[in-house]
Design goal:
The protein is of the alpha/beta class. It is built from eleven helices and eight strands. It has an eight-stranded mixed beta sheet, sandwiched between helices. The structure holds S-adenosylmethionine.
Length: 239
């Protein structure tokens, strides 16, 4: 008998879409479409300057998941997407976004802030890579190629960058957002409109200066880290 399904980014995003009967899904940073092509949602927008999805794979996934027939692909960086697609985003709004583009604090924060401008009421942002397992995985850099070149001690090919600081930043500065991180799949940050459970007592500059050591010593409180199954309780208690 199959056990319970592993809780990962795909399950969390799909559970949110299903529970909220969402139609408008945005994914920033798509690569080979491992998540994007599996997600079932009426409108799906994919943003990546460097897609790695072959035409044959796209066709295969029309059959595996017919929701893919209406997909819209935007081969561009996320900042350009938000600058050029204002009319579409304003018309429909975003129900669920999976933010998984460039793994820097600055860009992940910018992606979340831009998404928030179009997030529909009760919309949810899921931010990948918020709970790096090692200092090497959390190495602040501008690309994985750069991290490979530097090859910090302990680097094993996994790069989450300093996306975790976006969670700390939002938890320190935004009184209007509820923010927590699910402890699965390198840390899935969940951001919604609403009152925070509690806030961090840091200035924006202090967040910028946090180190990996600060994270490893205060992981639970900095990230508002929750067991992955918390997503079920969270969704049950929300409209
Ligand atoms: C980790 S991969 C995404 C994986 C995918 N979300 C999944 O779950 O299978 C990160 C992707 O972000 C893309 N990326 C990098 N910088 C970006 C930017 N500024 N805007 C959008 N995507 C970006 C990269 O090209 C890469 O394909």
């Amino acid at each position: 008998m199959a056990g319970p399904k592993k809780i990962d980014r795909i399950k969390v995003v799909q559970d949110i879409i299903n529970r909220k009967k969402s139609t408008n899904y945005l994914e920033i940073g798509v690569l080979a479409g491992d998540a994007f092509l599996r997600i079932k949602s009426r409108r799906k927008w994919a943003v990546d300057p460097d897609f790695m999805i072959s035409p044959a794979k796209k066709i295969r996934y029309y059959f595996k998941n017919p929701y893919n027939i209406l997909n819209k692909y935007f081969r561009m960086e996320s900042d350009v997407f938000f600058d050029t697609q204002m009319p579409m985003l304003s018309e429909y709004g975003i129900d669920v976004a999976f933010v998984d583009g460039l793994h820097t604090f600055e860009q992940s924060l910018q992606d979340v802030q831009n998404t928030l401008k179009y997030l529909n009421k009760n919309g949810v942002i899921v931010l990948h890579d918020c709970n790096p397992v090692s200092e090497a995985a959390a190495y602040p850099a501008t690309s994985i190629a750069q991290v490979r070149k530097i090859n910090p001690p302990g680097f094993d090919g996994i790069w989450n960058g300093d996306v975790w600081k976006t969670i700390a930043y939002l938890r320190a500065t935004r009184k209007d957002l509820r923010v927590f991180v699910l402890d699965c799949d390198f840390g899935l940050g969940v951001v919604t409109q609403g009152a925070p459970e509690n806030m961090l007592d840091y200035s924006a500059d202090a967040v910028q200066n946090l180190s990996y050591r600060d994270l490893s010593e205060n992981r639970k409180s900095l990230l508002n880290l929750k067991d992955a199954r918390f997503i079920e309780e969270f969704l049950k208690n929300r409209k």
